[in-house]
């Protein structure tokens, strides 16, 4: 294998420039809960101001609106 006068690999495999490195999204990831379909009980939480209200069975938290800031509630 003649080698020494290497001109380098034909197609350089350098570190590609910028791609990936996702910039943080704004919205909080939805459904990062531990239990899918959390059972009855628990709280609904406002992701914006942190207000909590007790969850009503049969009413998904995201159907509730925070009484303080108007943000949709999420499962707490
Ligand atoms: Zn709120």
What brief labels describe this structure?
single chain; 76 residues; little secondary structure; three-stranded antiparallel beta sheet; rod-shaped; binds zinc ion
Strand order of the largest sheet: 2-1-3
Q: Unreliable stretches, pLDDT < 50, 5 or more residues? A: none
**Percent of sequence in beta strands:** 5-15%
Structural classification: little secondary structure
Pattern of helices and strands: EEE
Mean pLDDT: 75
Largest sheet: 3 strands, antiparallel
Q: What would your notes on this structure say?
A:
With 76 residues, the chain is largely without helices or strands. 0% of the residues lie in helices and 11% in strands. The chain has no helices and three strands. It has a three-stranded antiparallel β-sheet, with no helix packed on it. The site of zinc ion has 8 residues, from loops.
List the SSEs and their pairings.
Blueprint: E1 43-45, E2 52-54, E3 74-75
Antiparallel strand pairs: 1-2, 1-3
This protein binds zinc ion.
What's this model, at a glance?
This protein is largely without helices or strands.
């Amino acid at each position: 294998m003649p080698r020494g006068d290497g001109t380098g690999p034909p197609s350089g495999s350098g570190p590609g420039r910028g791609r990936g490195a996702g910039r943080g999204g704004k919205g909080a990831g939805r459904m990062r809960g531990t239990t899918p379909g959390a059972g009855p009980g628990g709280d609904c939480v406002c992701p914006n101001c942190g207000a909590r209200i007790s969850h009503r069975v049969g009413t998904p938290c995201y159907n509730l609106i925070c009484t303080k800031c108007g943000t949709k509630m999420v499962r707490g």
